[in-house]
Write a structure and sequence with these properties.
The protein is built from 23 helices and 14 strands. By secondary structure, the protein is α+β, with helices and mostly antiparallel strands. The strands form 4 sheets. The protein has a 5-stranded antiparallel sheet, with helices on one face. Helix 4 packs antiparallel against helix 6, helix 4 crosses helix 11 and helix 14 runs parallel beside helix 15. The relative contact order is 0.07. This is NH(3)-dependent NAD(+) synthetase.
Length: 576
């Protein structure tokens, strides 16, 4: 049977004749559902007739082994006993009962629970069964390909003045993808193949039907041997896309609790393949410019909602499942990767090199060593005392010595005093000086003066300003907006404090710097951990998905919420 237009009368007539001749199915009524799917009335009941290229054999091979599962809507033979009927194009046509009811809606808790229970039932029933497996693409390859298809839509964002939005998506997704590439996806896929773990593969709400008799699962086109994680990753994305407001809400369901802290689940879920899928599906409909503009507004809302999922779930490049030897080998690779990345950033920006402000702490020490490696002759370490303790300057000088970086010292103490006292005097004259904020305003001004100094030097040398914030500081917002947070590059953003220490050891940072109590040097005796009310170790554990005491968790989460504005681009109103 030749397929021209699957909706026109001539095609419907041919299909009627084909089903009667090849399958002895005499249809009294035929309704197109979607391309190559038809609802037909024959033999005193409604059926679904669907056309396949090759999946039919695979699906039949499964259902011949689980015939007694009434909640799984399987194929049935045609009236003449044929399991499928083949047309002149080599396509397979299959028959299954039509189930009346409503599709599951993931905005409802009971429907989310129903989908989980039925999928678990399917996994248990199908596990270990041999199926006529067709070759499927690895998860990482599919994710990468979907991302590349999204990249090809850049012009649409540009046409609708959404270039910054597009760039934000690309940066975030590329970062996640780079971390995903570190995981051993092939290993868990090989295990699933070996143990014959079978997943459904398409758990959209419309593939479940609820009626007075129960809940039914159908459309088994994408069954495959694959890790169960892949099923739950897809379902988690649908829950977040359609119903849940918080990533943590997933863990009210036991099936997701079992994956808490598991890298494959976290990375797979936060990778925005579902948003890309919906966007690309929308574009295939050839929408008007007005429709695209409207969808982009919706897309931005969804992306903004997704940011908190990214920030909470991202494990910031944690190195998993490694022995000490493997960890050390990986740290060498991490250093090589960061060095290459820094070189690429300078090349793409068309500048000469990099500079960093050296405080005497471990983070700036690591960055100083990295940029010296990346640009031996075009890197600069800048020491900027500003009402600083002499020990900090001595530590900074040790970093310069250990890294071999060219350095410069610019004392900002007097500049700070003049500017701060000028502002303070003006506010005092107006009787508006807020004395309670005196210490914080003083400290933040120092950070912003350092930023201004670095950018002045960067302009002079044609360098990029390299930041020193790590994952723990970024997540909790423990940095000054437009101070130490005002930089061009942030190479340590995906490394926990513990991982920064491992990098420091690999790079040859002096031990006294590595073991020095973290401090921003804001005032006498100040330490980061005392000011935050928790420890870097606890923050590292939290962002890696590990349990922490309730008090620490509350402190970390409150800091994260309170500082959300620091991690966002400046807000602008929607275009009028």
């Amino acid at each position: 049977m030749k397929v021209n237009s699957w909706r026109d009368d001539s095609f419907m007539d041919r299909l009627h004749y084909f089903l009667k001749e090849k399958g002895d199915l005499d249809c009294q009524e035929m309704i197109p559902v979607k391309k190559n799917v038809f609802k037909v009335y024959a033999e005193s009941q409604w059926w679904i007739v669907k056309c396949y290229h090759s999946h039919a054999i695979k699906i039949w091979s499964l259902f011949l082994q689980i015939e007694d599962q009434k909640n799984f809507v399987s194929f049935v033979p045609f009236p003449n006993g044929e399991r499928w009927i083949k047309d002149s194009l080599g396509q397979y046509w299959c028959l299954s009962p039509f189930i009346e009811g409503r599709k599951l809606n993931y905005t409802y808790h009971e429907d989310r629970l129903a989908a989980i229970n039925l999928l678990q039932d399917f996994h248990d029933t199908a596990k270990g069964l041999p199926i006529k497996q067709t070759k499927t693409k690895p998860f990482l390859q599919k994710s990468t390909e979907r991302y590349r298809r999204f990249l090809r839509t850049k012009d649409i964002f540009t046409q609708h003045q959404a270039t910054l939005f597009y760039q934000n998506i690309v940066k975030q997704t590329r970062d996640i993808l780079e971390r995903m590439e570190k995981l051993k996806w092939r290993k868990i896929e090989e295990k699933a193949n070996r143990k014959r773990f079978i997943i459904h593969g398409d758990n959209a709400g419309h593939n479940f039907i609820r009626n007075q008799d129960g809940i039914y699962l159908f459309d088994f086109d994408l069954i495959q041997y694959a890790p169960y994680e892949y099923e739950w990753i897809q379902l988690a994305q649908r829950f977040l896309f359609e119903g849940l407001d918080q990533f943590e809400d997933l863990f009210q369901y036991p099936v997701f609790q079992s994956f808490k802290g598991q890298s494959y689940f976290y990375y797979g879920t936060i990778f925005p393949s579902d948003l890309f899928r919906e966007w690309l599906h929308f574009l295939r409909k050839n929408p008007s410019q007005a429709q695209v503009s409207s969808y982009l507004q919706k897309f931005q809302q969804q992306w903004h909602q997704r940011q908190k999922f990214f920030e909470l779930a991202t494990k910031y490049g944690k190195i998993n499942h490694y022995s000490i030897k493997e960890r050390n080998q990986d740290m060498k690779k991490q250093v090589e990767h960061l060095t290459q990345w820094l070189q690429n950033q300078v090349k793409e920006a068309g500048v000469n090199g990099l500079l960093v402000g050296i405080s005497g702490g471990i983070d700036s020490a690591v960055v100083a060593h990295l940029i010296k490696r990346a640009f031996p002759d075009d890197s600069l370490g800048v020491i900027m005392p500003c009402k600083s303790h002499s020990d900090d300057q001595k530590a900074a000088e040790k970093v310069v010595e250990s890294s071999g970086i060219k350095s410069m010292t610019i004392d900002l103490t007097e500049t700070h005093e003049v500017l701060f006292s000028t502002v303070q005097s003006q506010l005092n004259e107006a009787n508006e000086w807020n004395e309670a904020q005196d210490r914080l305003a003083d400290a933040n001004l120092r950070a912003r003066l350092r930023m201004s100094t670095l950018y002045t030097l960067a302009t002079n040398y044609g360098y990029l300003v390299t930041g020193t914030d790590n994952a723990a500081e970024w997540y909790t917002g423990y940095f000054t907006k437009f101070g130490d947070g005002g930089v061009d590059l942030v190479p340590l953003l995906h490394f926990t404090k513990g991982e920064v220490r491992e990098l420091a050891k690999e790079l040859g940072v002096p031990d006294e710097i590595i073991h020095k109590a973290p401090s921003a040097g804001l005032w006498e005796g100040q330490t980061d951990e005392n000011e935050m009310g928790t420890t870097y170790a606890k923050i590292d554990q939290y962002i890696q998905g590990e349990p922490v005491p309730e008090q620490d968790r509350n402190t970390i989460e409150n800091m994260h919420k309170r500082t959300a504005h620091k991690r966002e681009l400046p807000k602008s109103p929607p275009k009028f």
